[in-house]
Amino acid sequence: MSEEPTGSVIVATDGSPAAAVAVRWAADEAVLSRRPLRVVHVQPSATFGLPDVPPPQAEEARSVEARRILDEAVAQLSTHSGLEVTTDNILGEVPRVLRELANPGDLLVLGRRGRGRFAELLLGSTSLKVAGTAKGPVVIVHGDGHGPRGEIVAAVAFDIDQTAALGFAFAEARRRGAVLRAVHAWDTGEIFSPYAETAPVVVDPANTLSELMEPWREANPDVKVAEEVVGDHPAAALSKASERADLLVLGTHHRGALGQFVFGSVGHAVLHHAHCPVAIIP
């Protein structure tokens, strides 16, 4: 069920400290997955920050700045022996360019915070829009600079196809020799709300989770799997689980409480409060 990746690891940088962390994470991922690394800088055509400079000179100055940013990003990768690295300065509108870069065969990596328009992208609703509409996987890197924790957390819902997300999570766990922890958030307060439109369907979440994960265990005998059912809101449960994880993996096609991830408050909460990188898988 878990396939080795193809394509490239693509990381966007604007020269900010958070982008530098993302570049290093992307380089590590490229080495682990034996893929080339492509470092890109998105240069808006408008002359933001240079109001008194004529357009031609402003564009040239921004191109020089972009080259400096890319060179600095590559310079920090000297310890990644054998890694194939290319760089690109892309002209265009940042969210659109990033969506176009997120192809199914590639992995797009972004820092949580940035400068200027990048900061707006990675802290506001645009980041959720990029991740939720991307055709390929997107990882938003943030955390506290911890070392390897030995665990990949996969958010699991019961009512949708999670083949892509679980396949990605198992592949990451295998490459790292990490435990795959499958977490299902069982928000009983929401399920048994007196304002619910329909009567709740009572199931045993632990048993359902075990049944869902069984074929994945059989197909991936080399990956240790742990299962956890949490009686809490999905945002709180996933943020807590991320404290002990190297990567938190979520699919974008969820429904129900956990399905609020991409466009609702859960997504904002997880992206702002997760303690490890978050992979969003279409």
Describe the protein in words:
Pfam families: Usp. InterPro entries: Rossmann-like_a/b/a_fold (IPR014729), Universal_stress_UspA (IPR006015), UspA (IPR006016). This is Nucleotide-binding universal stress UspA family protein. It comes from Actinocorallia herbida. There is one protein chain. By secondary structure, the protein is of the alpha/beta class. The protein folds into two domains: 133 residues, HUPs (Rossmann fold, 3-Layer(aba) Sandwich); 131 residues, 3-Layer(aba) Sandwich (Rossmann fold). It contains ten helices and ten strands. Helix 2 links the parallel strand 2 and strand 3. The longest helix has 21 residues. The radius of gyration is 20 Å and the shape is elongated. The chain starts with 8 loop residues before the first strand and ends with a strand. About 6% of the residues have low confidence.
